[in-house]
Design a protein that fits this description.
Largest sheet of chain A: none
Number of helices of chain A: 10
Oligomer: homotetramer
CATH class of the largest domain in chain A: Mainly Alpha
Largest interface: A-B, 59 and 59 residues
Strand content of chain A: under 5%
Number of strands of chain A: 0
CATH topology of the largest domain in chain A: Tetracycline Repressor, domain 2
Structural class of chain A: mainly alpha
Order of helices and strands of chain A: HHHHHHHHHH
Shape of chain A: elongated
Distance between the termini of chain A: 43 Å
Chain lengths: 203, 203, 203, 203
DNA sequence: CATGAATGAGGATTCATTCAT
DNA sequence: GATGAATGAATCCTCATTCAT
């Protein structure tokens, strides 16, 4: 899990190769989980030899970590984007339907749960996950404060932080629900989520 | 993953031994995850030889399944209990603080995430988890319908089912949040959660 | 593989128990081979606990040895009986059909091959098998000498011993053929075997 | 037992390695039997790690099957060669001595019995053995038909097939006799075998 | 840069055997 | 006599990792 990316003559090519591995890892991790996916499986998917992967990553754990980092960044980006709309509060309430289906139908659910489980056990992964979460929340917090100020709502740190936790929990929880009850009536779920969002965001 | 509990002369002792194994498994699974925990590790924690465990469980997978079943039952029971109070709607809103801390501070979070991750990949575990969820929701649904009827609220199947999903998502999401941001300001989270609950339950 | 049958208070009962085990072993060995049959499997078939078997046999190897001894005795007996008919030479030629079907259709073929394979590898079993063979050949030899003398044929030791080997080889070989070519045309096989027997016995 | 030979960059080297394993297996199987020989034992004899063997064979069973295939091919080849002489009928009678010593003294007897025992219980091995036997008999049959036709003897399918069975049984039976009575008087055995062969082949 | 052959430790599981009851 | 709970060594097999080429 060391930070040292090895020296390569052609850094661009090296970066490409790293990405190849991470993309392959995505496929394999999705199919078999972090521990179920073997280096050989990943190397085949990446179109390079197992041995060569070790020129780009110190260990399998390093791949997992890099993969999680990347994934978690993507999620963060979405969260930031989503939060940079005009009137984000209204936007979030209005777009409840989109958010709910996104969280319930995504093909990344298995991966997301895998990441969370790993984070709850592997300190290195936990650090990556928490760090990304920290950054996302920072962006999200700024946005909420501005938006709530415009609506004359309490925008103190604690209030906003509590609000963020609850909102994110609601969406992450939908990921979890997807594996418990894939047949839930979506429109009704959306209605309830919208009620919750409105209540939270505008109080 | 057969249900096949082997015949034992002394069923009480056997039950005790099974429980010993499950308790040991809890410890090890918490520490190392389902796949990281070795049978030898579990056997040491259970105070019996690895070979002997196979007199009580068909395989490691069977241990995981039994363990999940037990755990999931416990969660179900809590959900049912919680749902059998006098005016459950009001009760849930009032007790938001208790529920939130319960979900954020529990030492079972790692296990819960482990179970969810496993369920998203292992069909046998998924079946156990979904079955328990089905039963919990059935109890929960009955309760919500009665309670909402008393409050003159829409108690149709779809509405209630959507409501349930959102409420459960909120709480399960709090489990997930616990590993991302252990330092969240609890009172503010509670306030937002209470807002959300009130909005959902009473609409 | 020690010779010491343990002391038992009631030797008759003990003998009965031993036989129970050997009968069970027959079933299991037939089904799974010597090494594929587990003590637990045998104990279940014998209707007694695995542990208790060790009051009658020192080890699994001792069961195999005793089993082989018994089986080999049975074969010997048949050989002796078969050899005590009036004009055994003529008898053998005439009864070629019976002998061939006996060797080709028996349900003991698997066991016989198992025994031979074990004997070729396990010196203790080899000793048992050779000893029984020695005794059978002794009876068989006496008979052949008398019969051939009556027919004015050379009855010297060497000639008779060579003859015996070839005759027995022919029949044992039929056991082997049974697993290679179960569909061989029996009548034609019988005809050839009869030709061979006549030629050998009466030369 | 899949036919699945893995892809290797250097097929020659791979073939060499496979053969190394099969040779080592021969040694170990001879010494300890198929089930008594451990993968670790084989790997030591093959001069490579146990794990590496799995780059060339899917499983221990696959090694056994490949080994049997090879062995059984060798035996088939001998049978075919032996049958392609000028006047094969006369040749077989004349060469009785060679055939007998070959079958009685070979150091492959233990292996042969092991193979037969395995075939009588393991369907995959039985298939390999039967298939090879089928091919050998086909060659042998053609030869016998031609040779007997030249001698004006009945060369109908059934007669020849029955004859083949009996002849092969006689030789295979000699393998079996070798472990029962290593001290049999060879010349006398040869004499009897010759009598039998002449009687069978020329009737 | 790239390969894949090779290692060896560690995994789950089975099973002959022992022994307290 | 009889049980079956318990052991622990051995088995087959997998896989992250290394290294000669």
């Amino acid at each position: 899990m060391s930070n040292n990316e090895k020296r390569h003559n052609d850094p661009d090519r090296a970066q490409l190769r790293r990405q190849q591995v991470l993309d392959a890892a995505a496929t394999c991790f999705k199919r078999s989980g972090f521990h179920g996916a073997s280096m050989s499986e990943i190397s085949k998917a990446a179109g390079m030899s197992a041995g060569h992967i070790y020129n780009y990553f110190d260990s399998k754990d390093a791949i997992i970590a890099a993969f999680v980092e990347q994934n978690v960044e993507r999620v963060s980006a979405i969260l930031r984007d989503l939060a940079q709309r005009a009137d984000p509060l209204k936007e979030m309430v209005d777009d409840a339907e989109g958010s709910v289906s996104e969280h319930v139908e995504s093909d990344r659910i298995a991966l997301q749960l895998e990441i969370w489980a790993e984070a709850s056990r592997n300190p290195a992964i936990a650090a990556v996950v928490r760090d990304a979460d920290l950054r996302s929340r920072s962006d999200f917090r700024n946005l909420l404060k501005a938006a709530r100020a415009r609506h004359q709502l309490d925008a103190s740190d604690d209030v906003v932080d509590g609000l963020m936790e609850a909102v994110i929990a609601l969406f992450h929880g939908l990921h979890v629900r997807a594996i418990h009850n894939p047949g839930a009536p979506l429109p009704a779920v959306v209605a309830s989520v919208r009620n919750a969002l409105r209540a939270m965001l505008f109080s």
